[in-house]
Write a structure and sequence with these properties.
The protein is built from 15 helices and five strands. With 323 residues, the protein is of the alpha/beta class. It has two domains: 158 residues, Rossmann fold; 116 residues, Zinc Finger, Delta Prime, domain 3 (Up-down Bundle), CATH 1.20.272. Strands 2-3-4-1-5 form a five-stranded parallel beta sheet, sandwiched between helices. Strand 3, helix 5 and strand 4 form a beta-alpha-beta unit.
């Protein structure tokens, strides 16, 4: 994985390249940005450049080949085991970092899911960040910087990764063989995440969003059992939930812009449904729903009770209809 393989993150990559060329690589970085925007790819490209000694990694030396195969002895990737990163995982990592590198100039650990550090594991990691081994490099990855412990944030160099432009995502999808119409709609709905765009563009997903939107928008406070049932089912789908919320957010935004720029709809193929919702919801109520939905996504990244949080949001959604 080289920097040239990463799409749309020129600013972050420029900072990392400069740190290598000037010999000022920090001992710890915190990469934050939405899922699927290239944080992990950039982390791997950074490691390749540090290990290889060339700005973009040559791709042919033994170090680059081992990284490409996922078997470099000086790179360790740590991810949550279940809901959290556990203290035993951090202790094992600390043992690894205490040894000198086998081959590379540094031992590197990528912690993908830094927001999943609990209090115990976060405090244990803090000790390593405060007194890092001289030849260690740690890269923490998270969708939301604020979800990571403040004490950890303060000991890392933070790099914010931006959502990818719609045009860039659409071009990439077409290049990878997605039909042009599916690529266009997926690019507008993905929120700047290439990973999410590929999921949306897959067979059946675009059709499934219509059923999802019809179900959610039909919720009402007179049938509270159906509302709670929908919240329960969505909360249970931990993998699909972020995508569902992104679809709903894009639809609510379309309701806001429909009266002034109908040709600018992200869900242009669902204009009839957008028009119907715009006719029965005030602009103010839609703006409030968008704020509540953004807040809901932030809460879910902090491991709150998803079912309860969705129930509260759906009650707001169901009660915001005129008449």
């Amino acid at each position: 994985m080289a920097f040239s393989d990463v799409t749309g993150q020129d600013a972050a990559i420029s900072i990392l390249k400069r740190s290598i060329s000037m010999g000022r690589v920090s001992h710890a970085y915190l990469f934050s940005g939405i899922e699927g925007c290239g944080k992990r790819k950039t982390a791997l490209a950074f490691v390749q450049a540090v290990f290889c000694g060339k700005e973009d990694g040559c791709g042919v030396c033994p170090s680059c080949k081992k990284l490409a195969s996922g078997h470099h002895p000086d790179l360790h990737i740590l991810e949550p085991e279940g809901a959290f990163i556990k203290i035993d995982q951090i202790r094992e990592l600390q043992k690894e970092l205490a040894y000198r590198p086998f081959e590379a100039p540094k031992k590197v650990c990528i912690i993908d899911g830094a927001e999943k550090l609990n209090q115990a594991s976060g405090n244990a990691l803090l000790k390593t960040l405060e007194e890092p081994p001289g030849d260690a490099l740690m890269i923490l990855i998270t969708p939301e910087r604020s979800a990571v412990m403040q004490t950890i944030q303060s000991r890392c160099q933070s790099l914010a990764f931006q959502p990818l432009p719609v045009e860039l995502v659409e071009e990439r999808l077409v290049r990878e063989g997605f039909p042009a119409e599916a690529a266009r709609v997926a690019a507008t709905l993905c929120g700047g995440s290439l990973k999410r765009a590929k999921e949306i563009g897959a067979d059946g997903v675009l059709e499934g969003r219509v059923a999802f939107l019809n179900r959610v928008l039909a919720l009402n406070t007179r049938d509270i059992q159906a509302l709670f049932q929908t919240a329960e089912e969505m909360a249970a789908d931990k993998e699909g939930l972020p995508g569902f919320l992104e679809l709903l957010l894009s639809f609510l935004r379309d309701i806001l812009i429909y009266r002034s720029i109908p040709e600018g709809l992200a869900n242009s193929d669902l204009e009839h449904l957008v028009a119907f919702e715009a006719s029965r919801r005030s602009e103010g109520s839609v703006m409030e729903l968008i704020e509540q939905l953004v807040h809901l996504r932030s809460l879910l990244s902090r491991n709150v009770n998803a079912r309860l949080a969705l129930e509260v949001f759906f009650m707001h959604l169901a009660s915001g209809v005129r008449g």
